[in-house]
Known about the structure:
The chain is mainly beta. The protein is built from one helix and ten strands; from the N terminus they run E-E-E-E-E-E-E-E-E-H-E. The model is unreliable at 1-30 and 145-166 (pLDDT under 50).
Amino acid sequence: xxxxLRTLPALALALVLSACGGGSVExxxxxxxxxxxxxxxxxNPTGRVLQEGDTGIVMLGGSGPQQVWFEIGEAATYGVELExxxxxxxxxxxxxxxxxxxxxxxxxxxxxxxxxxxxxxxxMRLAPAATAPAEGTxxxxxxxxxxxxxxxxxxxxxxxxxxRKSLQIGACMGCxxxxxILLGADLRKADLRKADLRDANLHGANLAGANAAGADFRRAKxxxxxxxxxxxxxxxxxGAYLFGANLAGADLSGVDLVKVNLTGVDLxxxxxxxxxxxxxxxxxxxxx
Length: 288
């Protein structure tokens, strides 16, 4: 699932969207923030405003915020587009100015919209679809510093793209979350395939049922994290701190466990690198 608010090249309205990916883009502010840290003028006026280079998470539905504030530093035309897969989670997306005036929106009837935005603060309002999970859905945010590379990856023309900005909300497949502070984050069933989570702090995070195949967790802090049923096939866990983590039923096929300390880790029912299923009771080192 991927939704993107991005600048539009001249004479182009139709957008080619990609999942939340930062690639080699370096953040200019702290990377990694959760719903409780997001700015809201009424509920949380001292919170963070999404800016260029930021990566974070917003919960759509449940008790999470239904809007995200962001800063535009350069005047440009920004567009919003919803795809079929987006509508399973999102019923409507609006972009409004700081005064609350709606400038652009997209829904099932109007999939694509655009608006000219001057430098300043804006808000993206997110209305969950009737089919969205009642407990909420974790959506990743990324504000690219340079549209050119993202556009090239998505197959769009590179002409007139240098320096363009994009605000992406959706899956985190291949996204850059190096060093992200995501303590206790709710990432159940999140799409983290090939995501870069090196040195990320995921202490106590809930990744149950997530798809993290091929993800890079080197030196990540995963103590007390819930990784039950998580797809970790071919993931890199070298140097990750997993004490007290729950990997019951996780798929560890293709994972090099030589450099992984599994002390205090629950591996019951996990698929091991050689394809065996760990059915042992403590001590779980009987599985290895």
